[in-house]
């Protein structure tokens, strides 16, 4: 409004001046200059002076009124009426050059640009973890003569005489959603070991493929997924649980002997109802150690020879699993969850033989397993057991035979959320197994019984420490060695997550 009033006052002043000067100009043009008297000139000058004084008074009044009415906020946009009037007058200067006329800059109109969709590689994320261990055989059969069992484990080749530090796992994981219907997961391990590189010398720090699969979501949500590629086989709760999330340092012989390496190449479908996913999400937020989302129900087919092994027969390994968490609030155990489930595995496998290659015979490899978990709040229990038939070397006949097997474990644990050093998980585990081990040459028989006490300390989200002390009685996984090795093991692990 202030600029409108200002423009109006200037226009009014200009018009008044033009009106006031028109009369004397006309009088001057009609009367010859020679006949004008000094009286007429004085009268005209006085009249002009009067008109000028009146116009000045009008301008002063308008300016005072304009100042009193001006708002505190920024003025409204100026109308272009006065400049347009000036531009329309013949011979007038452009509005930008006229005194007192302010040229407004042209308004810039923002053009809405549609957001750019992310490329597939922009949707991926990289994470991982590393485990460094110290294994010490405190007492017992660290070494033994040929033909007698030494204290060894199938879960960690670092348990041996004359050993100190070693990397157990160095994992990098690349994963992400390519779109609403497909995601990928890629995990190599940089801490694998190979032998026979230099007259039987063992070499560590090599790369091994662990996971490479794509998840397809037919319905667009993630309640149903079809997994294609090399991934974990859904048999055994602790087999599915990530090593970065497990309390004990190694999986038990009885459960892991079903699937050494836990993985195979194939296709598997998982289904997770919404109510189950809600319970698992709540448990995960509470710091519980879950087995990972492998579905409440799973069914799949795989090659059956094991991780990174060439398929050698025309049969497929069939597997099915079911697990269900039950909330116990209704019986007075508020916040506590009890999970119960089982799995079935049917397969035929060709074990590696001492003479080279694999056995020409495909042996039955069938199992059924049960699992139960009472999540700690703060005290909890966990257990698994499986029974079946599998390949096992018979020293009496010198051949691999189909023999019965059974084994499992029971674990007690406590979750302490608040302590001076961070969240801690004390635990105790007893395991037992009698049966063949198809993951070793000639499928030797294992006879394992072990009690282990441990403590995991989660110092922060990036670093955790685990220490265990165990009393073990084991038969070594070598068909050429006999008897039981006994001893005590001290083991310490540092794990950092990134």
TrEMBL record:
<feature type="coiled-coil region">
    <location>
        <begin position="38"/>
        <end position="65"/>
    </location>
</feature>
<keyword id="KW-0732">Signal</keyword>
<keyword id="KW-0175">Coiled coil</keyword>
<protein>
    <submittedName>
        <fullName>Porin</fullName>
    </submittedName>
</protein>
<dbReference type="Pfam" id="PF07396">
    <property type="entry name" value="Porin_O_P"/>
</dbReference>
<dbReference type="InterPro" id="IPR010870">
    <property type="entry name" value="Porin_O/P"/>
</dbReference>
<dbReference type="InterPro" id="IPR023614">
    <property type="entry name" value="Porin_dom_sf"/>
</dbReference>
<feature type="signal peptide">
    <location>
        <begin position="1"/>
        <end position="27"/>
    </location>
</feature>
